[in-house]
Amino acid sequence: MTINIRRPDRSRPEPLWHQAEQALRALIADGTWPDGTQLPNEGKLGEMLGVSRITIRHALRNIEESGLLLREHGRGTFVRTSTVTAGVRGLTSFTQEMSDRGLVVGSRVLEMVELPATPEMASALEIAEGETVVKVRRLRAGNNQPIGIQTAFMPAARVPGFLGIGEPVPSLYEVLKNRFGISPQVAREIYRVGTVSAEDAALLEVEAGSPAFVVQRITSDARGPFEYTVSTMRGDRYEIRSRLQV
Q: 151 φ, ψ to 5°?
């Protein structure tokens, strides 16, 4: 198969490894190399792009660290099944995280209602128990592969008329910013190892009891907490990486 690849231009100011990285990412993003595809070896990639093996190695390492590639010793380099990699990062939405990793975000609203705050919700959002909150439960996907289920709770007083807006597209944070003037400033997350419930298993296309990350997140702006989210993320499509140094 002939591959249309953008070769680095030595007259441009960007480093060759950066141009090579962007060219390879583009082939993943546009589906030329779908999930599970084995990439050509470093020598062949170098010929395709007109750069050295060292340049290719640098580019591949960066893409691998972002979670888009899996390099297996003795086998080769493969496009990784849609995976979100969590680690040290800025305060971003799921939509932005997916975009940063070259994945096409997918979202489907499963439930969007108002209900009284439970003690847990009230404590997280710093409101009175029983106060009305908006619940938004969504199935999140990357490249049409289910990754997790996120359930967000927001004080109804901060988002009046939210239910009348319809599905928050493309991002809940975008809707909050554009419609209600709410922009996140700080968030606190807790990760726990858990399992997928019977209710969520069919949606996530796994067996009930499969490994999962359960993530609790409280997001605040200058006025205080405006979102409390509980997410169940597939253990095989969500991972946490940290860089440790002295």
A: -120, 115
Q: What's 144's DSSP letter?
A: T
Cα–Cα distance, 94 to 169 (Å, whole number): 12
Within 13 Å of residue 84, how many CA atoms lie on the same side as its CB? 29
The per-residue pLDDT for range 165-214, each reduced to its tens digit, is 877 666 888 899 999 999 988 888 888 889 999 999 999 999 999 999 89
- Is this structure's pTM higher than 0.70? no
DSSP alpha helix (H) spans, 101-182: 119-125, 172-180
CATH code for residues 16-79: 1.10.10.10
Residue extents of the structural domains in the chain: 16-79, 84-240
Residue type, 171: S
The domain 84-240 is placed in CATH, from the list 3.10.50.40, 3.40.50.720, 3.40.50.10140, 3.40.1410.10, at: 3.40.1410.10
Token reading at 78: 């493969």
Please, is 140 exposed, middle or buried when counting C-beta atoms within 10 Å of its C-beta (0-12, 13-18, 19+)? buried
Residue found under tokens 């419930």: 197
Paired residues of 219 in beta bridges: 187, 227
Type of residue at 139: L
CA distance 234 to 160: 33
Q: Based on C-alpha coordinates, what's the Rg of the chain?
A: 21
Phi/psi at 201 (5° precision)? -60, -45
Give the end-to-end CA distance of the chain in Å, rounded to a whole number. Answer: 47
